[in-house]
Recover the amino acids of this structure.
């Protein structure tokens, strides 16, 4: 049997039923008995369960994030040793007895937030990069100066006006949102070298 967590349904169901009592009553009378939603565990969440089972003496296998026969047997053994219903599934009671919270299991394996590069000061760009920005701002009617590749007050002001006109934070910085909104290739922005 494959390991799965009822965590998402348990969280979502509890909050939905608390927020909408009438819905809870309807759901209780219309749902087929034994119907539940299960969410597969990520490999990182499986590693958390395996680690907890090992620390508590129920698991001797590798902590590899793969739910196999050894993990399954360890979970069933743990449930039996702690007088829990032996289901072989990581249910609310088993998770709590293991010391795992739904939030911990759901957060395991979430991708790290993307790394956002810092804004590039226009004064540190190559002349070709600045000229490309000036040309693009001119095409969009935000810049009226010479396309000379020199980052000056008029280029800075044009960037700020462009940002404001596009609903971006008007800070005059060349951040990813501004570069994307300008329709420029981020690789074009080359620092002085």
């Amino acid at each position: 049997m494959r390991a799965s967590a009822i965590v998402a349904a348990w969280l979502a169901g509890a909050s939905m039923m608390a927020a909408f009592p009438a819905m809870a009553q309807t759901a209780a009378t219309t749902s087929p008995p034994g119907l539940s939603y299960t969410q597969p565990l990520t490999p990182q969440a499986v590693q958390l369960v395996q680690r907890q089972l090992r620390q508590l003496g129920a698991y001797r296998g590798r902590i590899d994030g793969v739910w196999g026969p050894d993990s399954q047997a360890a979970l069933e053994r743990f449930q039996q040793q702690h007088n829990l219903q032996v289901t072989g599934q990581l249910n609310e009671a088993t998770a709590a007895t293991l010391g795992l919270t739904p939030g911990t299991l759901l957060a395991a394996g979430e991708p790290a937030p993307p790394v956002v590069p810092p804004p590039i000061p226009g004064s540190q760009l190559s002349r070709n990069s600045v000229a490309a920005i000036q040309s693009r701002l001119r095409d969009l009617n935000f810049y009226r100066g010479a396309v000379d590749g020199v980052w000056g007050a008029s280029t800075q002001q044009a960037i700020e006006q462009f940002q404001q006109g596009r609903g971006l934070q008007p800070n005059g910085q060349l951040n990813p949102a501004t570069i994307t909104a300008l329709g420029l290739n981020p690789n074009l922005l080359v620092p002085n070298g």
